Amino acid sequence: MKMIIAIVQDEDSSRLISNLMNEGYGVTKLATTGGFLKSGNTTLLMGVDDNRFDGCMAIIEKVCKSRKQISSSPVTMGGSAGMYAPYPIEVTVGGATVFVMTVDQFVKF
Ligand code: 2BA
User: Fold this and answer.
1) Atom of ligand 1 minimally distant from the CA of 7
2) Which of 23, 30, 60, 79 falls 20 to 30 Å from 41 in CA-CA distance?
3) 33 forms bridges with which residues in the sheet?
4) From first to last of its 109 residues, what are the pLDDT tens digits of the chain?
5) Number of compact structural domains in the chain
6) Is residue 25 in some structural domain?
7) Which of 65, 16, 11, 2 is nearest to 44 (CA)?
8) Do 48 and 71 meet the contact criterion of CB atoms below 8 Å apart?
């Protein structure tokens, strides 16, 4: 069994969960925040049997789109004077950031 941890954009999360549930995958949704953009994203936890792993990854890849986002990033001006001026930066977010771990034990009480 594998534990898939997928960080996805909020815009994709409902459709992704629906697709996964329709195919019989178990999903836990966490409301999370990206460290760089400091905006909301969604983290999904999925415990998946090895023989269903590829199917789950295929759904994630199909549903999650990459998008460009403009973010304001602070830049320091005046050194130790501590003045800040925001400037726009464009970043490409997603489709999905996926971590896969082998599960040693899976128990339901
Ligand atoms: P954020 O940390 O808010 O990052 C959003 C996007 O900003 C990233 O998209 C990337 O394109 C860009 N970015 C992140 N750090 C950057 C930096 N130091 N300099 C320039 N651009 C940077 P993704 O790579 O698709 O990541 C989407 C979200 O996935 C991230 O949101 C974060 O919540 C998570 N994530 C990505 N890599 C991770 C990792 N190695 N460990 C844990 N979470 C990760």
Assistant:
1) 29
2) 23
3) 40
4) 999 999 999 999 999 999 999 999 999 999 999 999 999 999 999 999 999 999 999 999 999 999 998 887 655 555 566 666 778 889 999 899 999 999 999 999 9
5) 1
6) yes
7) 16
8) no
Whole-number Å distance, alpha carbon 34 to ligand 1 midpoint, is 7
Q: 58 lies in which domain range?
A: 2-66+93-102
CA of 91 to the centre of ligand 1 (A): 9
Give a yes or no: residue 52 inside a domain: yes
Full-model pTM: 0.91
Q: What pairing do the DSSP bridges indicate for beta strands 28-33 and 40-48?
A: antiparallel
State which ligand 1 atom lies nearest to the alpha carbon of 92.
11
Is residue 87 situated within a structural domain? no
Q: In CATH, what number is assigned to the domain containing residue 62?
A: 3.30.70.120
Residue 83 lies in a domain: no
Ligand 1 neighbours, Cβ below 6 Å, are 7, 34-37, 41, 91-94, 97
